[in-house]
Amino acid sequence: MSVSWWVWAALMLAIAAMLAVDLFLHRDNHVIGFREAAVWSGIWIAAGLLFGVVLWVWQGGEVAGTYYAGYLIEKALSIDNVFVFALIFTYFAVPPAYQHKVLFWGVIGALAFRLVFIFVGAELLETFFWTAYLFGAFLIYTGYRMAFRHGEQTPPDRNPVVRLVRRILPTDPAYHGNRFFTCVNGKRVATLLFVVLIAVEATDLIFAVDSVAAILAITTSTFLVWTANAFAILGLRSLYFCLAGLLRRFTHLHYGLAVLLAFAGVKLVLSETPVGKLPVPVTLGVIIVTITVSIVWSLRSTRAAAASAARAHR
């Protein structure tokens, strides 16, 4: 799918405008409640779905279906981001009022990282056919790790990027309001909130490799991959505040995400064989069924566990 430069420019301006509105409405650093987060999640999801309708009218059903497949897989994978963000915020005891600011700037960093990964990855796949096998093997291995080693978590302060920042920049081990930098004894230093931001950005950098590779398994159109990523990521902050208190209910979701990553890997490998690319309806069907089954399985399991615990305390 070839897109003119002015379409890219219009899209970037629209995303910048949406981010500006979001930043303006949250300039007071208030605590985001569930109701507000749910409303914003609805707005961002509606924007993502509406863009698919625009593509349908503009480019046809196949292009729109490809976009929706990418959007759904990115949205599903972003739930795993929420798990890790919750871990980081808990580990560093980030006050709720400052979490939105960290996530906002984290999203901007994520958009920049993924834009680079998308163009590099798409160019590699278009130029060297064998990179499909490398990306496919990487996705299958990542799916395996997610399924069987999901509980292994590295403490955020041991992240190499976070440790590097602390070595390079003078850092004060405390929060100073919502500021990333402040002056202590006449010396400019980074605050603990900046360290949290670096931890979030470093974590999302890892997730970006997985998610971009997964969508490139569906299409190598940089425009479709970028828009699917962008509209899914724009709602990541609201999604966090919606799901932060419900994450314990999604006990088996990582299995579904592992299946999606492995499926994307297999799909990427098959694209360079006589089998060719799988039809978009098949891809959409696998994504929807996998996400639905893993969520329903999680909710039923946690409900049954809660009922058993309640009976045991009687």
Strands ordered across the widest β-sheet = 1-2
Estimate what percentage of residues fall within beta strands: under 5%
Largest sheet: 2 strands, antiparallel
Give the helices and strands as they follow along the chain: HHHHHHEEHHHHH
State the separation between the terminal residues, measured CA to CA.
62 Å
Given as residue ranges, the uncertain stretches (5+ residues, pLDDT < 50) are none
User: Got a strand count?
Assistant: 2
Oligomer: single chain
Radius of gyration: 20 Å
Q: Helicity range of the residues?
A: over 70%
List keywords for this structure.
single chain, 314 residues, mainly alpha, two-stranded antiparallel ribbon
Could you please describe the fold and organization of this structure?
The protein has 314 residues and is an all-alpha fold. The chain has 11 helices and 2 strands, in the order H-H-H-H-H-H-E-E-H-H-H-H-H. It has a two-stranded antiparallel ribbon with strand order 1-2. A hairpin with a 2-residue loop joins strand 1 and strand 2. The model has no long low-confidence stretch (mean pLDDT 83).
Short description, anyone?
This protein has helices at residues 5-25, 34-59, 61-91, 96-127, 131-148, 160-168, 192-216, 222-234, 236-243, 253-270, 280-312; strands at 181-184, 187-190. With 314 residues, it is mostly helical.
